[in-house]
Design goal:
The complex is a heterodimer of chains A (about 90) and B (about 425). With about 90 residues, chain A is of the alpha+beta class. Chain A has one domain: Folate-binding fold. Chain A has two helices and six strands. In chain A, strands 3-4-5-6 form a four-stranded antiparallel β-sheet. Chain A is globular and about 40 Å long. The termini of chain A are far apart. Chain B is built from ten helices and 18 strands. In chain B, the strands form three sheets. In chain B, strands 1, 2, 8, 9, 10, 11, 17 and 18 form an eight-stranded mixed β-sheet that branches. Chain B has an eight-stranded mixed β-sheet with strand order 5-6-4-13-14-15-12-16. The chains are: A alpha+beta (about 90), B alpha/beta (about 425). At the A-B interface, strand 3 and helix 1 of A face strand 12 and strand 15 of B.
């Protein structure tokens, strides 16, 4: 798989480490969220067959975190964004 | 139809005209007591034991494709019970004991071959860990032996013992481990279930679940609605897709695991060998091909095919361990979809829907678990309580901090 890095251009997926569903960006507030909410965040996954937004880390590159939109049935990648931009667009400060 | 040596000879003399289809191909009835979703190894074993051991009737197995067309035909056929943790070892040892009696039990040749499995050791720390695991296995009634470097050398003199990074210092052996003909397991269970009146319904994909007042009423399928008192789901690989019909999100990611077969070679490897440090394991089939594999690809996938980096990684692992295979040609590679759970261990449990039960999360260890998984799931379905060896495989273990994490990797499914 080739990941089209927004800054570095096409890079082999081998250079990256995979973390998982991009919903991991939306971590609940540990001080206010209950155990059930945190349990759901940490352990449960939608795990769709089809389009999936996921976090990839460019470990052997510029060490940026990316949100890759990829189809889990065909492995086709349709969108690559910097995770920072995605987090900010969802209201996070960084 | 029972199989026997006499029958084979009689058929050979009469042109093999007397063999009949091994199971019926029935249309679904409007309602069953039990519906098992998934006609793979685990689902068929569940139906078989439900009918045979728990005396239940009116059972159907629904399969979206053909029987045994999923992971039970895509694995590397290894059986073993070399686990460390209390939640796992009794279950897998129960499974290995069932394997040992399976062919007589269902009167079908599954080619159960206990040639032994060894896990290679490269450091003192690994030897300590292997000793501990071996002791845990023995305490749960399994068998284990610690092999010295010389004993390993006697078995496989052509291994790379002096690899600079991973010199071989010994191995943990389970002599009762081995391999089984995987397709025959599905066929044997299917035949045994069919003989006991179970309807095996193929080309029947579940497209929805009818749930009223928190209770399952039946399932919508591509062959119409089928009612049921209890529904058991055993569709590892597609668990999240099926359980989404009940509104559930699971502690599971689907990942692709690749496997490989080389061209046929003369006898080279007697048993099963794992080279954990090099992410490689191998056995040799009766036809002579080396059957081997390594890590999962590491990203969510439902594609049943992987990518080249893992093929390269596995080949490198093989070459590091066995330089002699350098000129051997690869015959086939394929991929299967694994339910990778959050702690690397399976789930056999009730759900929040009354009458709906779940069996999945087998990671890449589902094949060896087939008999015990079927037995324990049938126990749960028939008696509404967990089998004694499967009590730890609960959904709520993540909420309660009771994970069964053999590798200690935490909630990162692609690392288990």
């Amino acid at each position: 798989m080739i990941i089209h890095h927004p800054i570095l251009g096409p890079r082999d997926a081998q250079e990256f480490v995979y973390l998982g569903d991009a919903s991991l960006i939306d971590r609940p507030d540990g001080m206010t969220a209950g155990v059930e909410v945190f349990h759901d965040y940490l352990y449960n996954r939608t795990n769709p067959a089809g389009e999936h937004q996921e976090l990839w880390y460019h470990e052997q590159g510029d060490r940026s975190w990316l949100v890759v939109t990829r189809n889990t049935v065909t492995h086709e990648i349709t969108k690559v964004e910097l995770a920072r931009d995605v987090a900010r667009s969802r209201g996070r400060t960084k | 139809m029972r199989y026997s040596g006499f029958r084979v000879i009689a058929e050979a003399l009469t042109g093999h005209k007397g063999w009949k289809p091994v199971w019926r191909d029935p249309d679904p009835q409007p309602e069953y007591d039990y519906i098992i979703i998934g006609g793979g190894g685990h689902g068929l074993a569940t139906a078989y034991y439900l009918a045979k051991e728990f005396g239940q009737a009116r059972i159907a197995v629904l399969e979206k494709g053909y029987l045994g067309g999923g992971n039970v035909g895509r694995n590397t056929t290894i059986i073993r019970s070399n686990y460390l943790l209390d939640g796992n070892e009794p279950f897998y040892e129960f499974s290995l004991k069932l394997w040992e009696g399976l062919e007589q039990d269902f009167n079908y040749n599954a080619m159960v071959s206990q040639r032994g499995i060894i896990n290679l050791i490269h450091t003192d720390a690994q030897r300590d860990a292997a000793t501990r695991r071996g002791n845990a296995m023995i305490m749960h009634g399994a068998d284990a032996r610690l092999l010295s470097r010389d004993e390993v050398r006697q078995m496989y003199p052509w291994l790379n013992f002096d690899n600079a990074r991973f010199p071989i210092k010994g191995a943990l052996m389970q002599p009762r481990g081995g391999t089984v003909r995987d397709d025959a397991v599905a066929w044997g269970y299917a035949r045994g279930a069919d003989q006991r009146g179970v309807d095996l319904i193929q080309n029947c994909e579940v497209t929805g679940m009818r749930i009223e007042n928190g209770r399952i009423k039946g399932v919508e399928t591509t062959r119409g609605y089928i009612g049921a008192k209890k529904v058991g789901v055993a569709v590892a690989g597609s668990s999240s897709k099926v359980m989404a019909h009940a509104g559930m999100r699971l502690p599971i990611e689907s990942h692709v695991l690749q496997a490989f077969v080389s061209e046929g070679l003369k006898p080279l490897i007697d048993g099963v060998m794992t080279f954990g440090a090099g992410h490689f394991y191998v056995s040799q089939s009766d036809k002579g091909g080396l059957v081997f594999g390594g890590d999962i690809d590491g990203y969510n996938s439902y594609a049943q095919r992987g990518n080249l980096p893992v093929i390269e990684d596995v080949a490198e692992g093989g070459m590091a361990l066995m330089p002699a295979i350098g000129r051997v040609r690869l015959l086939r590679t394929w991929g299967g979809i694994m339910d990778m759970s959050m702690d690397g261990s399976p789930i056999i449990d009730k759900t929040h829907v009354e009458g709906l039960y779940f069996n999945g999360g087998w990671c890449y260890g589902g094949f060896k678990a087939t008999p015990a998984s079927g037995w324990a799931f049938a126990h749960l379905l028939a008696k509404d309580e967990s089998h004694i060896t499967a009590k730890a495989y609960r959904f709520d273990r993540f909420l309660k901090g009771l994970m069964i994490d053999e590798k200690g990797q935490g909630a990162q499914p692609n690392l288990h």
